[in-house]
Design a protein that fits this description.
The protein has eleven helices and twelve strands. By secondary structure, the protein is of the alpha+beta class.
Length: about 350
């Protein structure tokens, strides 16, 4: 292309990347129009154009990552939005709008066995139904956890940062309200979505058969869009089982899938293998009633027609001979893969 003589190519592409990063609705046609304007009305073709678009996308992602990481780091100290304080023997960082003493009250209710216990194991304990709050406890499992917490790398702190990273990236999740630590472990307090939402596996098991074909297609598109957004915005779940996503039906008829298990989130974009592993987890934790064709449509909506066959083969290879395992109101259910 014939570039303007006083603007080197690197500066042009960096400027366009900054424009793309700061404009939410900067689509591919917009990018091509901007490229044409910068290039004096002409555009490179073939490989040269693809190289330009690749460089713009890479630089845009770098700008986004820098901004998101900077914003996310603020959640661990007192700022205009967060406040650090002491409540009893707890060191607490919470939203300023979250009433003082509310963290201590929620944890006392959690310890007293109130609410609904949805998980109890050595690694974590989750309680919902605490007056609109959900508490996830991360008890210390030994010297390693104690040292990690003392050095500022505790599991509860990581979950708090991950939850706020999702919010900063405009990815659906339960609103993080507070993080607390003491000598025995850490706690994450979030909004409780269970009053008006179901886990993805339970929702599919109980409602999929009743959905009209058009609603099923919308459901799959929105689920694929959620996963694609997590990948594009560098907030990839470490555990993508169906029970870690909730299902919300919005007023406009679309579906939202908030990620509620945030302690495994990594602030990075998934490569091919990481994406396939997550899809394998989702495949083996979604009820059989979601048939083979629906699973293929979900995969197509996520990776596109061109890569559908390659990803399907990799997901099936990673899934191996395992059977589907998901949670229902009656307990764990095991089924053959469709």
């Amino acid at each position: 292309a014939r570039l303007l003589p006083f603007l080197p190519e690197t500066l042009i592409l960096r400027s366009l990347a900054m424009l793309a990063a700061s404009t939410p609705f900067f689509t591919r046609p917009d990018a091509l129009r901007a490229l044409r304007a910068y290039a004096g009305g002409t555009l490179p073709e073939g490989r040269a154009l693809r190289r330009w678009v690749r460089r713009i996308r890479t630089e845009r992602d770098r700008i986004w990552d820098r901004h998101w990481r900077s914003r996310t780091r603020r959640c661990t100290r007192s700022t205009g939005r967060f406040v650090a304080r002491k409540e009893g023997d707890l060191r607490v960082v919470a939203l300023r709008s979250f009433a003082e003493g509310a963290v201590l009250g929620a944890l006392q209710a959690h310890r007293a066995g109130k609410g609904v216990a949805v998980k109890r194991d050595r690694g974590s304990r989750v309680t919902r139904g605490l007056d609109g709050l959900c508490v996830k406890a991360f008890p210390s499992r030994g010297l390693r956890d104690t040292l990690r917490q003392a050095l500022g790398f505790g599991r509860a702190r990581h979950a708090w940062i991950s939850a706020n990273a999702l919010r900063e990236r405009d990815c659906a999740t339960a609103e993080p309200l507070a993080w607390a630590e003491n000598g025995s472990g850490g706690y994450l307090v979030t909004q409780d979505l269970s009053g008006h939402a179901l886990e993805l596996d339970r929702a599919v098991a109980s409602r999929w058969s009743a959905l009209a074909p058009s609603r099923r297609r919308r459901f799959l598109r929105d689920l694929a869009g959620t996963l694609k957004r997590l990948g594009e915005r560098a907030a990839w779940p470490g555990d993508a089982k169906a029970c870690n996503f909730m299902v919300l039906e919005k007023a406009d008829g679309s579906f939202a899938f908030p990620l509620v298990d945030v302690d495994g989130v990594r602030q990075a974009r998934p490569d091919t293998l990481r994406l396939a592993r997550a899809l394998s987890q989702l495949h083996l934790s979604t009820p059989r009633v979601l048939g083979r064709l629906s699973r293929a449509r979900l995969l197509r909506d996520l990776v596109g027609r061109r890569d559908l066959r390659a990803y399907a083969s990799l997901v099936l290879k990673l899934s191996g001979p395992a059977r589907i395992l998901y949670q229902s109101d009656a307990g764990d259910v095991t089924e053959d893969v469709p």
